[in-house]
Amino acid sequence: MKSPHFLNQFDYSLLQGSNFKEDSVREVIISPLIKGLGYNDYQIVRSKTLQHPFLTTGSKKRPVNFIPDYLFKIHENYAWVLDAKSPNENIRYGDNVEQVFSYAIHPEIRTKFFALCNGNQFVLFRQDQKEPLLDFEVSDIEHYWEKLESYLSPESFQVGKTIVYEPAIKAGYKNQNFDYSNCRLLNEIKVEKQSAKRHFGVHGYFTKQAWNVVQEYIKNFSKAGDIVFDPFGGSGVTA
Fold first, then answer.
1. How many CB atoms lie within 10 A of CB 138?
2. What is the phi/psi pair of residue 166, to 5°?
3. Which of 1, 4, 6, 66 is the most buried (most CB within 10 A)?
4. Which of 3-7, 39-43, 103-107 is predicted least confidently?
């Protein structure tokens, strides 16, 4: 499925105008986006009223209502929530993020995913993680569309489907052909203790390795952008 064609043609300079507000973001940006993801009208719940379950003032309960812009249902369960904001509003952190998080954890909703869009940016969060899963400029949506579909399309929430979360890889270093299991064994490496004498000789223990040996093995058995796990830490040789 391709990204919404209209978003590729949209003049994003219009977002700077004083008349382009939250309702425009919903109509012009979000509407084609959710249709591009494959949602039908019966899967989209708009402006559902939610009552805050905890608020009391003194001895009296005061009803306070929440109204998410969009809730998406798959098999009668809420899959994710999306809120629109004006182009000048911050959607990466702060009150707006906390507001939509409260929708996601509400007892009537309980979704893992929540997202915000202000026309300029689209940010997707998972409610049990602090950092966003996706954070991109809407003008670059075609470059993120495949990943967006993998998280939010109706098919991604099918019962029994296994979702795999891939670690972030630094741009420019992704190499799908790297074969970890068949990396060559290294020849003997000359130990460079003297060039690192100040920190290598601070304290001794019999399993300590020279930094240059560790470095060469990391280079050989991993690729740039990988995470290297050193469970013992030692004297900081791996770091």
1. 20
2. -85, 140
3. 4
4. 3-7
